[in-house]
Amino acid sequence: MRLTAGLITAAAMVLTLTPLAQADSIQLSVSSSFTASFDSPNDNFWGEYSTVKGLFDRPSLGPGYYPRASTTFSNISVFVPSGDFVTSATIHILLPTTTVHGTGVVVVKQALPPPDWNAPQIAPTFGINGWSDVHVDLDEESGILLPIINGDEVSTGNLNLYFDVMGFISDTVNTPGVNWDGYIGGSGSIVSPYTVQLDVTYSPVPEPSSIALLGTGLVGLAGFARRKFLS
């Protein structure tokens, strides 16, 4: 029983003295922007205007037609401490979570049968300083963004990013028109911010001294057990 108790005590001392590797992380964020120009593509996305009803639906950009913008983001890198190794690395593209505002122009596209066939048809006119309200999403054509790990350097590489733009184009009415129903289209542009975020987690490489310490402890155990046995 004295031999067993001695072994347990010595082993506990060795494990307590062995250092543990601690993980750490680095995060690098770089902000930039891109410009997107767009228009309502066809009658599925044109707005409607009616002089009789006073109806004004805005031209839209929606499912089935996503105007796209693209940009190239230049490489960024981080370095982990020398001798440490990378345990994980990810790239995130952060986009506005609220509406992005830009410029816009609304124009008459196509007349519909008028309320009164016997009366003149006068189309409405719109201002030249309209606006657009859109949401921006990362398009799947951007692909899976994988960091490049080269020794103690982690980088994004040059990224070809594609974005979808969805929303509405608006403008003021200069003259309401007379006896006119029809479609209105529009065009516009926005400048949207975005951020490329590189997250890296790394850990120290276990030092040989930890193994050496464990070996010394085992030798000590043998000597300790021998002394107890002979006494």
TrEMBL record:
Keywords: Signal
InterPro entries in alphabetical order: Ice-binding_C
Record has Signal as a keyword: yes
Keyword Nucleus: no
Signal peptide: 1-23
Domain Ice-binding protein C-terminal: 204-227
Protein's name according to its UniProt entry: PEP-CTERM sorting domain-containing protein
UniProt source species: Edaphobacter paludis
